[in-house]
């Protein structure tokens, strides 16, 4: 008599990343109709900068493709340290940097190194769903702090202290993002510094997601490491550097966690992709800067276009798009089920947008996220189609 097959683990029972389902539906629509304008993916529509592609080709030609140091090649770590110094974080060295397989790899390694099963970790709602899902898969207790328009969809020290008092204890960790996905909002420098000091005072590991640094529009970004080195900063070449599929991220790691993270990385991933590290090194160089700044100018124009045209579909409430490349929009006047509504928009118009349920499991049914990281003429055409759709549905 054969034994029953092993059943899925309880830890694997996490919510799906719904945007991937939207992407699959958009791909099928493109196959059958060929008319899709995708505003759903959290990635630039542009490719890696030329300097990065040339460096990758050179690495392939030189056969520099074997295992690297687990924490990343030294020149890349030095370049990342210099990048953060240029952004105002003094005295960062290559030894502070661990290169990872995308920022997703950084979060997983950090969460494993810092938190045990049952530890409480706080994050914002709305927020990036992979924080929540990864933390829950690792057995932590996730508390989502409701951050609405009154606080610009970002946490404040007053909110954190009130939550600590109400719960009787501080958490083991706090995850923040600035600029944030899905809202694009930025935490003011003074507030982020105050949050870092609050975390230090209460023994909380601050995890600061800074992967959208470089993409901001008039409101300055700051880093948690400008105030304290007790937390961790996450970075990536995916967003500003337009290299999502190359899978290179990094973290600035506090000294007390550095060896634990490195040991975990050596066991779980061995090293980040070698060819991608050489490409990332080139992307961080001066040769790529002009090309990347042009992308930001496109996002700036698209931000203005979106703000001008959202009222044409009746959207008057949305998060202030300080940075990143998203518009987080309240569509409650159009639907009480944004997942269904976004599916209807795709079916009727070929425009793919993301429902809010990924980012806010409580109120996301009345929100959508729209990506601005496309060509401006495509974005304009997408609005033309949505205006017609909303008009025909009213």
From TrEMBL:
One Gene Ontology MF term: pyridoxal phosphate binding
Reported cofactor(s): pyridoxal 5'-phosphate
Family annotation (InterPro entries): Aminotransferase_I/II_large, AspAT/PAT-like, NHTrfase_class1_PyrdxlP-BS, PyrdxlP-dep_Trfase, PyrdxlP-dep_Trfase_major
Gene3D superfamilies: Type I PLP-dependent aspartate aminotransferase-like (Major domain) (3.40.640.10)
Stored Pfam families: Aminotran_1_2 (PF00155)
Highest taxon of source: Bacteria
Keywords per UniProt: Aminotransferase, Pyridoxal phosphate, Transferase
Segments forming domain Aminotransferase class I/classII large: 35-385
EC number, UniProt record: 2.6.1.-
Record PROSITE patterns: AA_TRANSFER_CLASS_1
Any single GO BP term: amino acid metabolic process
Family from the record: Belongs to the class-I pyridoxal-phosphate-dependent aminotransferase family.
Protein name, UniProt field: Aminotransferase
Organism of this sequence: Dermacoccus nishinomiyaensis
């Amino acid at each position: 008599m054969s034994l029953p097959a092993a059943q899925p683990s309880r830890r694997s029972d996490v919510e799906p990343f719904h945007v991937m389902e939207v992407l699959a539906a958009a791909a099928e629509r493109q196959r059958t109709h060929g008319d899709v304008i995708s505003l759903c993916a959290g990635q630039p529509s542009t490719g890696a900068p030329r300097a990065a592609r040339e460096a990758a080709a050179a690495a392939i030609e030189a056969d520099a493709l074997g295992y690297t140091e687990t924490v990343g090649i030294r020149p890349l770590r030095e370049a990342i340290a210099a990048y953060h110094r240029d952004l105002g974080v003094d005295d960062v060295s290559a030894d502070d940097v661990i290169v990872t397989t995308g920022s997703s790899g950084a979060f997983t390694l950090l969460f494993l190194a810092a938190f045990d099963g049952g530890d409480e970790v706080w994050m914002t709602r709305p927020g990036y769903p992979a924080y929540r899902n990864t933390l829950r898969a690792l057995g932590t207790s996730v508390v989502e702090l409701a951050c609405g328009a009154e606080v610009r969809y970002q946490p404040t020290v007053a909110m954190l202290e009130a939550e600590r008092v109400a719960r009787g204890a501080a958490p083991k960790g706090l995850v923040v993002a600035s600029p944030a996905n899905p809202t694009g909002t930025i935490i003011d420098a003074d507030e982020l510094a105050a949050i870092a000091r609050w975390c230090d005072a209460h023994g909380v590991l601050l995890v600061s997601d800074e992967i959208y640094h470089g993409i901001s529009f008039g409101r300055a970004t700051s880093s948690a490491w400008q105030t304290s080195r007790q937390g961790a900063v996450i970075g990536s070449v995916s967003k500003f550097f337009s290299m999502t599929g190359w899978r290179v991220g990094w973290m600035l790691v506090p000294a007390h966690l550095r060896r634990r993270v490195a040991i975990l990385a050596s066991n779980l991933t061995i090293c980040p992709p070698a060819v991608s590290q050489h490409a990332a090194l080139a992307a961080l160089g001066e040769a790529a800067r002009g090309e990347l700044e042009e992308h930001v100018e496109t996002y700036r124009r698209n931000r203005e276009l979106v703000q001008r045209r959202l009222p044409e579909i009746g959207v008057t409430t949305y998060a202030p798009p300080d940075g990143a490349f998203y518009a987080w929009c309240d569509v409650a006047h159009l639907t009480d089920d944004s997942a269904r509504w976004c599916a209807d928009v795709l079916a009727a118009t070929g425009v793919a947008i993301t429902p809010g349920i990924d980012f806010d499991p409580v109120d996301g049914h009345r929100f959508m996220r729209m990506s601005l990281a496309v060509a401006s003429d495509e974005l304009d055409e997408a609005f033309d189609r949505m205006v017609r759709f909303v008009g025909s549905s009213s």
